[in-house]
Structure formats: structure tokens, C-alpha cells
Amino acid sequence: MRDAIQAELMMSFLVSEELSFRIPVELRYEVADPYAVRLTFHLPGDAPVTWAFARELLLDGLTAPTGDGDVHIRPIMPGFTADVLIRLHVGPDRAAFRAGASPLIAFLDRTERLVPRGREQWFADFEGTLEAALEDILTTEQNAG
User: Fold this and answer.
1) Regarding beta strands 36-41 and 49-54, do their DSSP bridges make them parallel or antiparallel, or are they unpaired?
2) How far is CA 114 from the centre of its chain?
């Protein structure tokens, strides 16, 4: 069984109303973190930036505006599955990206075949993740002291 799914697509980075440019974006989904998808944006001249957010958020944003907090996703034209607007917020900084819905749908379909929606808890390793996080904290405290 595969542990991850990866895809790459081009998105438009919307700098302003008048200026945008296309950038490669890597999409990644891992069985070890079945509730999340990761998007890594490869901006020219900068180190890649990765955002992780709920797979459900991306799926819901294909057909209706969704998102609270730092990630908002909505179709460009409600009722149509053509393009999607993804807005990311970090404090006062904001970035907007426009993506074709078709490659996102294809990616989400592949994630669904790997881990069906509603069955994520069967794949999530919360105890192992918690143990690793606690071990990291303890090691850091011991090294600092």
C-alpha cells in the first residue's frame, strides 16, 4: 500500500489585480496524516513554502466559499467547477492563488482511494505522534538544561 500521493500543478500567484504569474505547486497527501493536504509553493527567488490544511477544506472550497482563519478557498464562479481561489493569511501578510479545479479534483480523488473520507481515524497514529512530540520536548529540555 502506498503511504503518500504527490502531484504538481501550475497556479497563478495573484500579486495584484493587474499582476499575476504562474508558479509550480506540489500537492502532497500522506496516510500518516490523513486529515491534511500539503501545498508547497515554489516562488521564484524564495525558498519553497509549505502550507498544511484540512483535506475537507480543499474539497469543500471547490464548490462553495469555505475557511476560517488563515486559509480561505472558494470557486471563482459559484456553481461551476472551473477555477478555485486560495487565499492564505499570515498576520498582516496575504497571498492569493488561482488554480484549475480539474487537477485539484483529480488529486483529491486519488487521496480518496488511498484513505476514504470518514475513515481517516483508522489511519491516524495519534498515540505515536504524541509520543514523538513528547520525546522531542523532553530531549530539547534536557539539552537546554
Assistant:
1) antiparallel
2) 17
